[in-house]
Design goal:
The chain has 191 residues and is an alpha/beta fold. The protein is built from five helices and seven strands.
Length: 191
Protein backbone atom coordinates (compact mmCIF):
# COMPACT_ATOMS: atom_id res chain seq x y z
CA UNK A 1 0.00 0.00 0.00
CA UNK A 2 1.87 3.09 -1.17
CA UNK A 3 -0.95 5.64 -1.41
CA UNK A 4 -0.54 8.12 1.38
CA UNK A 5 -3.33 10.52 2.35
CA UNK A 6 -3.07 13.07 5.14
CA UNK A 7 -6.19 13.57 7.24
CA UNK A 8 -6.03 17.09 8.70
CA UNK A 9 -6.79 16.03 12.27
CA UNK A 10 -5.13 14.78 15.45
CA UNK A 11 -8.41 13.49 16.89
CA UNK A 12 -7.66 9.82 17.58
CA UNK A 13 -11.33 8.86 17.45
CA UNK A 14 -11.75 10.37 13.97
CA UNK A 15 -8.44 8.95 12.71
CA UNK A 16 -9.50 5.48 13.84
CA UNK A 17 -12.85 5.87 12.08
CA UNK A 18 -11.16 7.01 8.84
CA UNK A 19 -8.59 4.22 8.96
CA UNK A 20 -11.27 1.58 9.44
CA UNK A 21 -13.17 2.88 6.39
CA UNK A 22 -10.35 3.87 4.01
CA UNK A 23 -7.44 1.91 5.44
CA UNK A 24 -7.53 -0.96 2.94
CA UNK A 25 -6.47 1.28 0.09
CA UNK A 26 -4.85 4.29 1.71
CA UNK A 27 -2.28 4.86 4.39
CA UNK A 28 -4.03 7.56 6.48
CA UNK A 29 -1.57 9.93 8.13
CA UNK A 30 -2.29 12.40 10.95
CA UNK A 31 -1.08 16.01 11.25
CA UNK A 32 1.32 14.99 14.01
CA UNK A 33 2.85 12.37 11.74
CA UNK A 34 3.75 14.96 9.09
CA UNK A 35 5.15 17.33 11.74
CA UNK A 36 2.31 19.83 11.53
CA UNK A 37 1.81 21.24 15.02
CA UNK A 38 0.53 24.72 14.26
CA UNK A 39 -3.10 25.77 14.66
CA UNK A 40 -4.59 25.76 11.19
CA UNK A 41 -6.89 28.79 10.80
CA UNK A 42 -10.61 27.95 10.66
CA UNK A 43 -11.83 31.46 9.93
CA UNK A 44 -14.29 30.83 7.09
CA UNK A 45 -18.02 31.37 7.64
CA UNK A 46 -19.12 28.11 6.00
CA UNK A 47 -18.33 24.44 6.70
CA UNK A 48 -16.97 23.98 3.17
CA UNK A 49 -14.84 27.10 3.57
CA UNK A 50 -13.24 25.80 6.76
CA UNK A 51 -12.69 22.29 5.40
CA UNK A 52 -10.99 23.81 2.35
CA UNK A 53 -8.84 26.14 4.48
CA UNK A 54 -7.51 23.15 6.41
CA UNK A 55 -6.86 20.99 3.31
CA UNK A 56 -5.21 23.87 1.39
CA UNK A 57 -2.93 24.56 4.35
CA UNK A 58 -1.59 20.99 4.22
CA UNK A 59 -1.21 21.06 0.46
CA UNK A 60 0.51 24.45 0.45
CA UNK A 61 2.94 23.97 3.35
CA UNK A 62 3.51 20.20 3.31
CA UNK A 63 2.59 19.25 -0.27
CA UNK A 64 0.60 16.11 0.51
CA UNK A 65 -2.62 14.80 -0.94
CA UNK A 66 -5.01 15.31 1.93
CA UNK A 67 -8.53 15.73 3.23
CA UNK A 68 -10.14 17.72 6.05
CA UNK A 69 -13.60 17.78 7.61
CA UNK A 70 -15.81 20.34 9.27
CA UNK A 71 -19.14 19.67 10.98
CA UNK A 72 -21.98 21.77 12.33
CA UNK A 73 -25.39 21.38 13.94
CA UNK A 74 -28.02 23.38 12.03
CA UNK A 75 -31.25 24.18 13.90
CA UNK A 76 -34.02 25.28 11.56
CA UNK A 77 -35.86 27.62 13.96
CA UNK A 78 -32.53 29.33 14.78
CA UNK A 79 -31.81 30.14 11.12
CA UNK A 80 -29.42 27.17 10.95
CA UNK A 81 -27.35 28.29 13.96
CA UNK A 82 -24.98 27.26 15.46
CA UNK A 83 -23.74 25.82 12.13
CA UNK A 84 -20.10 26.60 11.50
CA UNK A 85 -19.86 28.04 15.04
CA UNK A 86 -21.02 24.78 16.74
CA UNK A 87 -17.88 24.16 18.80
CA UNK A 88 -17.90 27.60 20.45
CA UNK A 89 -21.60 28.49 20.40
CA UNK A 90 -21.66 29.42 24.11
CA UNK A 91 -18.12 30.84 24.15
CA UNK A 92 -14.44 30.22 23.54
CA UNK A 93 -14.25 27.48 26.20
CA UNK A 94 -15.92 25.09 23.72
CA UNK A 95 -18.07 23.74 26.57
CA UNK A 96 -20.52 21.14 25.24
CA UNK A 97 -22.82 21.39 28.28
CA UNK A 98 -23.06 25.17 27.92
CA UNK A 99 -23.61 24.86 24.15
CA UNK A 100 -26.53 22.45 24.70
CA UNK A 101 -28.07 24.60 27.45
CA UNK A 102 -27.97 27.60 25.12
CA UNK A 103 -29.84 25.75 22.36
CA UNK A 104 -32.45 24.31 24.74
CA UNK A 105 -33.07 27.80 26.13
CA UNK A 106 -33.36 29.36 22.69
CA UNK A 107 -35.85 26.70 21.59
CA UNK A 108 -37.91 26.90 24.80
CA UNK A 109 -40.94 28.57 23.23
CA UNK A 110 -40.46 27.54 19.62
CA UNK A 111 -42.59 24.67 18.27
CA UNK A 112 -40.26 23.61 15.44
CA UNK A 113 -37.33 21.57 16.85
CA UNK A 114 -36.10 20.28 13.49
CA UNK A 115 -32.32 20.14 13.15
CA UNK A 116 -29.59 18.40 11.23
CA UNK A 117 -25.92 17.61 11.48
CA UNK A 118 -23.93 18.38 8.36
CA UNK A 119 -20.35 17.34 7.60
CA UNK A 120 -18.29 18.58 4.70
CA UNK A 121 -15.10 16.80 3.68
CA UNK A 122 -12.67 18.67 1.41
CA UNK A 123 -10.23 16.48 -0.54
CA UNK A 124 -7.19 17.68 -2.46
CA UNK A 125 -5.91 14.95 -4.73
CA UNK A 126 -3.57 15.32 -7.70
CA UNK A 127 -3.86 19.10 -7.42
CA UNK A 128 -7.68 19.10 -7.70
CA UNK A 129 -10.24 19.97 -5.00
CA UNK A 130 -13.37 17.92 -4.25
CA UNK A 131 -16.17 18.32 -1.67
CA UNK A 132 -18.32 15.58 -0.09
CA UNK A 133 -21.37 16.21 2.10
CA UNK A 134 -23.09 14.04 4.71
CA UNK A 135 -26.35 15.02 6.43
CA UNK A 136 -28.48 13.43 9.15
CA UNK A 137 -31.89 14.97 9.85
CA UNK A 138 -33.57 14.90 13.25
CA UNK A 139 -35.05 16.79 16.20
CA UNK A 140 -33.71 18.60 19.25
CA UNK A 141 -35.02 17.02 22.49
CA UNK A 142 -36.51 18.99 25.40
CA UNK A 143 -33.67 17.87 27.68
CA UNK A 144 -30.28 16.16 27.40
CA UNK A 145 -30.36 12.32 27.48
CA UNK A 146 -27.52 9.75 27.44
CA UNK A 147 -23.81 9.65 28.15
CA UNK A 148 -22.20 8.29 24.99
CA UNK A 149 -20.73 10.30 22.15
CA UNK A 150 -19.73 13.95 22.43
CA UNK A 151 -20.79 17.50 21.55
CA UNK A 152 -24.53 17.85 20.95
CA UNK A 153 -25.24 14.09 20.93
CA UNK A 154 -27.42 14.15 24.12
CA UNK A 155 -29.96 16.57 22.58
CA UNK A 156 -30.22 15.14 19.04
CA UNK A 157 -32.61 12.36 18.00
CA UNK A 158 -32.18 11.28 14.37
CA UNK A 159 -35.38 10.76 12.39
CA UNK A 160 -36.60 7.16 12.57
CA UNK A 161 -35.20 6.62 16.09
CA UNK A 162 -36.37 7.31 19.67
CA UNK A 163 -32.93 7.50 21.26
CA UNK A 164 -30.56 10.45 21.20
CA UNK A 165 -27.14 9.93 19.61
CA UNK A 166 -25.79 9.81 23.19
CA UNK A 167 -28.13 6.91 24.08
CA UNK A 168 -27.18 4.84 21.03
CA UNK A 169 -24.39 2.33 20.71
CA UNK A 170 -21.42 3.91 18.93
CA UNK A 171 -21.60 1.40 16.07
CA UNK A 172 -25.25 2.34 15.44
CA UNK A 173 -24.49 6.07 15.42
CA UNK A 174 -21.42 5.54 13.24
CA UNK A 175 -23.52 3.82 10.56
CA UNK A 176 -26.08 6.62 10.19
CA UNK A 177 -24.16 9.75 11.16
CA UNK A 178 -23.43 12.82 9.06
CA UNK A 179 -19.70 12.02 9.22
CA UNK A 180 -20.25 8.40 8.17
CA UNK A 181 -22.26 9.52 5.14
CA UNK A 182 -19.63 12.04 4.04
CA UNK A 183 -16.83 9.48 4.48
CA UNK A 184 -18.80 6.87 2.52
CA UNK A 185 -18.98 9.33 -0.39
CA UNK A 186 -15.26 10.00 -0.09
CA UNK A 187 -14.64 6.25 -0.08
CA UNK A 188 -16.80 5.66 -3.15
CA UNK A 189 -14.81 8.34 -4.96
CA UNK A 190 -11.38 7.09 -3.87
CA UNK A 191 -11.74 3.33 -4.07
P1 LIG B 1 -15.79 19.31 14.09
O1 LIG B 1 -15.79 20.12 12.84
O2 LIG B 1 -15.88 17.83 13.83
O3 LIG B 1 -14.67 19.68 15.02
O4 LIG B 1 -17.15 19.64 14.86
C1 LIG B 1 -17.44 20.94 15.33
C2 LIG B 1 -18.41 20.86 16.50
O5 LIG B 1 -19.65 20.28 16.06
C3 LIG B 1 -17.95 19.97 17.63
O6 LIG B 1 -17.17 20.69 18.55
C4 LIG B 1 -19.25 19.51 18.26
O7 LIG B 1 -19.76 20.49 19.13
C5 LIG B 1 -20.17 19.42 17.06
N1 LIG B 1 -20.21 18.04 16.52
C6 LIG B 1 -19.51 17.56 15.45
N2 LIG B 1 -19.80 16.28 15.24
C7 LIG B 1 -20.69 15.93 16.20
C8 LIG B 1 -21.36 14.70 16.50
O8 LIG B 1 -21.19 13.65 15.86
N3 LIG B 1 -22.20 14.73 17.55
C9 LIG B 1 -22.41 15.85 18.30
N4 LIG B 1 -21.80 17.01 18.08
C10 LIG B 1 -20.95 17.05 17.02
Amino acid sequence: MDKKLVFASNNEHKLEEMRSILGVSYFIVSLREIGCFEDIPETADTLAGNALLKARHIKMYYNYDCFADDTGLEVKALNNAPGVYSARYAGELKDSEANMRKILKELENLPDRTARFRTIIALILGGKEYLFEGVVEGEITKEARGNAGFGYDPIFVPHGYNETFAEMRADVKNKISHRAKAVEKLKAFLI
